């Protein structure tokens, strides 16, 4: 070992390794410092963009109205609304025809007594599958018929956004029916009362519908006005829509927990938790950290989702009746 250490080549190799380790530590510390400086610079730039968007915000409605009248005159607007009604009528007609063949099966599922957990889950999933199949037929008849024609760009975006918003709200309603079943207590997956389930489904439907509408409007504004996605006008519209969505979320949270009387201490903690989560997600969106916003939302909602899953499992075993 002493002979190896005395070798000049070994000594040079040890010195090289020590120099590389020191260089790696220095590079790592510089990289971390550069990252922090980069985040601060990005935040400073974002705040400047927000200030500029706030300054041009009063002129945004006038810009949108002017471009709207230029690209979509009254004739095109009436034409667009007429085609929306026609496409919705086609989709609704096909869905109505589908329901005529499945109403008997759906009614038999709702009236059939459920005695086991497996039966409850199977009946709820089958009922939701029928609803989703009708929704797919509605989308095929409305959006599919729309895609079969050629449209001017402005009118195409206007009509397509309306159809997508309507379809998204219908899809959200189908998911809420699966878990909450406002009109059929026997198929309800969550142990909630009839009145609370109906009110909660309405609140969630309105809130998620508002989110979909806000996302649609934020994408429609640059398309109609022709401004860039990162322009001050587009940023101002996104921030206003995000603020409206945040206020609506606060209202939904406090209204929903107000129905849960008496309000226990854990319920008050959950109400505060959801309000803080919405605020943090809004702040991340304002600072332009979209990935961080989705991370906060998904990770933050994971905890109450696991809590609801536990409540559902406990309630399902308590309500299930052993087969005779």
Can you characterise this structure?
- The chain is mostly helical and 324 residues long.
- It has helices at residues 2-6, 8-56, 60-71, 74-111, 117-147, 153-180, 194-225, 232-259, 265-286, 290-319.
- The chain contains 10 helices and no strands.
What's the helix and strand layout?
Blueprint: H1 2-6, H2 8-56, H3 60-71, H4 74-111, H5 117-147, H6 153-180, H7 194-225, H8 232-259, H9 265-286, H10 290-319
Helix pairs in contact: 2-8, 4-5, 4-6, 5-6, 6-7, 7-8, 8-9, 9-10
Which descriptors would you attach to this protein?
324 residues, mainly alpha, 10 helices
Describe the structure in brief.
85% of the residues lie in helices and 0% in strands. It is built from 10 helices and no strands. Helix 4 packs parallel to helix 6, helix 5 runs antiparallel to helix 6 and helix 6 packs antiparallel against helix 7.
* Fraction in helix: over 70%
Structural category: mainly alpha
| Major beta sheet summary | none
Total count of helical runs of at least 4 residues: 10
How far the N terminus sits from the C terminus, by CA atoms, comes to 81 Å
Tell me the series of helices and strands, N- to C-terminal. Answer: HHHHHHHHHH
Mean pLDDT: 78
Q: Indicate the overall shape.
A: globular
Kindly report the oligomeric state of this protein.
single chain
Please state the CA-atom Rg, rounded to the nearest Å: 28 Å
Would you report the number of β strands?
A: 0
Estimate the strand proportion. under 5%
Residue stretches low in confidence (pLDDT < 50, at least 5 long) are none
């Amino acid at each position: 070992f002493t002979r190896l250490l005395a070798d000049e080549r070994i000594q040079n190799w040890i010195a090289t390794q020590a120099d590389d380790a020191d260089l790696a530590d220095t590079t790592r510390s510089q990289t971390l410092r550069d990252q922090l400086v980069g985040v601060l610079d990005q935040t400073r730039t974002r705040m400047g963009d927000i200030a500029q968007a706030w300054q041009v915000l009063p002129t945004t409605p006038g810009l949108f109205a002017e471009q709207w009248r230029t690209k979509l005159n009254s004739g095109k607007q009436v034409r667009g609304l007429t085609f929306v009604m026609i496409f919705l009528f086609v989709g609704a007609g096909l869905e109505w025809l589908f329901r005529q063949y499945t109403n008997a099966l759906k009614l038999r599922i709702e009236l059939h007594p459920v005695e086991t957990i497996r039966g409850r889950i199977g009946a709820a999933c089958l009922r939701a599958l029928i609803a989703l199949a009708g929704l797919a037929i509605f989308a095929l008849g409305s959006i599919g018929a729309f895609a079969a024609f050629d449209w001017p760009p402005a009118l195409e975006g206007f009509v397509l956004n309306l159809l997508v918003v309507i379809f998204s709200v219908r899809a959200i309603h189908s998911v809420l029916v699966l878990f909450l079943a406002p009109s059929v207590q026997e198929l309800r997956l969550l142990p909630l009362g009839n009145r609370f389930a109906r009110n909660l489904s309405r609140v969630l439907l309105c809130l998620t519908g508002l989110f979909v509408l806000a996302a649609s409007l934020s994408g429609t504004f640059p398309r109609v006005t022709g401004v860039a996605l990162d322009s001050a006008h587009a940023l101002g519209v996104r921030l206003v829509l995000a603020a409206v969505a945040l206020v609506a979320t606060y209202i939904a949270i406090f209204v929903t927990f107000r129905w849960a009387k008496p309000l226990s201490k854990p319920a008050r903690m959950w109400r505060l938790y959801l309000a803080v989560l919405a605020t943090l997600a809004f702040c991340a969106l304002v600072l332009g950290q979209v990935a961080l916003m989705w991370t906060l939302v998904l990770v933050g909602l994971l905890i109450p989702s696991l809590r609801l899953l536990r409540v559902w499992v406990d309630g399902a075993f308590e309500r299930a009746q052993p087969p005779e």
